Amino acid sequence: MKRSFSLVDVLLVLAFCGHIAWTVKASSQCKQALSREIRPHSVAITEFGAVGDGVTLNTKAFQNAIFYLNSFSDKGGAKLFVPAGRWLTGSFDLISHLTLWLDKDAVILGSDNPDDWPVVDPLPSYGRGVELPGGRHRSLIYGRNLTDVIITGDNGTIDGQGSVWWNWFKRKTLDYTRPHLVELMNSTGVVISNLTFSNSPFWTIHPVYCSHVIVQNVTILAPLDSPNTDGINPDSSNDVCIEDCYISTGDDLIAIKSGWDEYGISFARPSTNIIIRRLIGHNRNGSGIAIGSEMSGGVSEVYAENLYFFDSSTAITIKTARGRGGYVRNIYILNVTLVGVDTAIRFDSTFSPHPDDFYDPNALPVIERITIKDVIGNNIKVAGLLEGIEGDTFHHVCLLNIALTVTSGSPWNCSYIQGYSAMVSPETCEPLKESIYPNHSSDCYHLSNHLRSSGNQNKGSWLHSW
Asked: Would you indicate the residue range of the signal peptide (predicted)?
């Protein structure tokens, strides 16, 4: 169905694009060191017998090429060039000091044979596969314990051909959790940029137990009805910068995670220092930015700005439940434009699938110091569904300068929430009506707090240290 846009819609988009134009002039806070893109050694995948006809399986060619390039890891690293063509492959591993570079007409295709995606152990912070007990299929592009890895190109494509996996999932015929498209574990100095990622079987880009990660200028696409095809999921990772991305998927565009119930609590690896800037996208069943629901290791110091979500289910969500434990604190989100979104802000405390029966139902999450400001939206069904947990009130929720055109008669629904607001339309719920000014601004999380807690005076400067 062709969607018609009102004048208000157009003005909102123009306002957002003005935001983008202004911020793009400033230097990027997610700078990648250009010297790291220049590798002294380079080979093409065709030198190892790969055939780009979309039919020949090239798993061995990728594995052999990367095995050969490993000999240059202590000599400045190497580049594996993927030229124009359709390169069918199963799962393969990356190495340290490697650049995987795709030509603009190159497409890496995931095999539709599950045997080409080996089964690996569950993540220790999850205790089992996310969907099924036991192991999980390994991602198409995989790496662990790596340093200095770049996945980039001239807007080539990595296509997981996920439809077969989605069908198996819907028919409940899978034995193991579906694979991600890209997963890097226990790695540092990761850059993913200038590519299109499409049709992931499960989550698309999954840095887990990683540090110093940049995801920049990527497009992520999956059908709006594809199950659990999250875009970018930083998981128990720190110093992550995501910017200038367009994401349209069947679930969350970005979901920040840190482990599941007792396994996440025990593993105790939080996600912290996450920067998200200039994100555009939409979804049908998920959120623009979600925190959780697996957040048992803790999530803190998240800064997001210049976001535009349209024709979506939810814009900003915190998902948790009894038994999660952990915390979500010090979250600062500003400059958000919404068009045609069902729910602008949601705190969902009933997101309660658990990995097994051994979780502690008395492990209550701590949700505090959440600031959302400078939000405009048109054709919004509900402004906010903010549901804390009885006996576990979510504290210091601060809303500032929010103007939404809401179509429902009950724009806000709040329970077990405490906080403050100023300049919010429609008028917010009773637990948040106390004004931020003049007495409570110090109770709200501010950008200056974020910079102090990050230990630097220039937003994102931690990214320049590697």
From this structure: 1-26
Nearest partner of 267 among 155, 186, 334, 213, judged by Cα: 186
Q: What is the mean pLDDT of residues 382-394?
A: 97
pLDDT above 80: residue 371: yes
Taking only the tens place, the pLDDT of each residue in 398-414 is 999 999 999 998 999 99
**Distances 153 to 136, 192, 193, 266, 458 between C-alpha atoms, Å:** 29, 9, 7, 39, 29
Calculate mean pLDDT across residues 315-340.
Answer: 98
Query: Residue 338 in contact with residue 375, Cβ under 8 Å?
Result: yes
Residue 274 lies in a domain: yes
Q: Could you give the residue numbers annotated as active site?
A: 251
Residue 363 lies in a domain: yes
Domain-located, residue 130: no
Q: Which of 242, 261, 264 is nearest to 253 (CA)?
A: 242
| 332, 377 contact by CB (below 8 A) | no
**Amino acid (one-letter) located at 52:** G
CA distance linking residue 260 with residue 126, whole number of Å: 5
Identify residue 121 by its one-letter amino acid code.
D
CB 275 within 8 A of CB 29: yes
The answer as to whether 429 is a domain residue is yes
Q: How many structural domains are present in the chain?
A: 1
Asked if pLDDT for residue 434 goes beyond 70, the answer is yes
Can you give the residue range of the structural domain that contains 315?
8-38+252-456
